[in-house]
Specification:
- It is built from seven helices and four strands, in the order ααββαααααββ.
- With 174 residues, it is mainly alpha-helical.
- The protein starts with 9 loop residues before the first helix and ends with a strand.
């Protein structure tokens, strides 16, 4: 297990792909409850926490750092021109939404959903870190885009509060 907050090694991350289940469950020959759970279990045991279901990224919370995030891995996804060229990842989903937003000049949304403890807050942090880097990297639209990363990082307390908010004594779904 890696220490918390340590960036992952892109080569080690990509090397895990060989023989560790289907990257995209839409490509599986048989789609049953048993085959889906078997695929997710195999990937989880191999510390591959992201799996595609078409354009959807399914994430299984490993409750530890499995080395699948960090600047070096983000750089690989930023340089990639194909979703299938790299392992399934939230970075690919964010990259696709960001590119679509820029090319169509239309707002995009990313929905992060799951049970309590599923890792929604961590997934949001991964998304925001990637968006911040995309918005301040080469091709950013103007010079103020570098501030976007800082502004996005400041949204975390608000997002945390929304996930733990109470309305009229009832918990809001996170």
């Amino acid at each position: 297990m890696q220490p918390a907050r340590q960036d992952g090694d892109p080569d080690a991350f990509i090397a895990k792909l060989v023989g560790n289940g289907a990257n995209d469950m839409c490509s599986m020959g048989t789609l049953t409850r048993q085959s889906i759970l078997k695929n997710l279990r195999l990937r989880f045991q191999s510390e591959l926490v992201y799996t595609y279901v078409g354009d959807i990224v399914l994430s299984v919370n490993p409750f530890k750092n499995v080395g699948c995030v960090g600047k070096a891995i983000r750089a690989r996804y930023m340089a990639s021109h194909s979703q299938s060229a790299l392992p399934p990842h939230i970075y690919a989903l964010v990259h696709m939404a960001y590119n679509q937003m820029r090319s169509e000049s239309m707002s995009q949304s990313i929905l992060i959903s799951g049970e309590s403890g599923a890792g929604k807050t961590e997934a949001m942090k991964v998304c925001l870190a990637y968006l911040g880097e995309l918005s301040s990297g080469p091709g950013a639209q103007d010079q103020n885009d570098g501030d976007v990363a800082k502004e996005l990082a400041q949204t975390n307390p608000v997002m945390e509060a929304m996930g733990n908010a109470k309305v009229g004594g009832a918990l809001l779904p996170a």
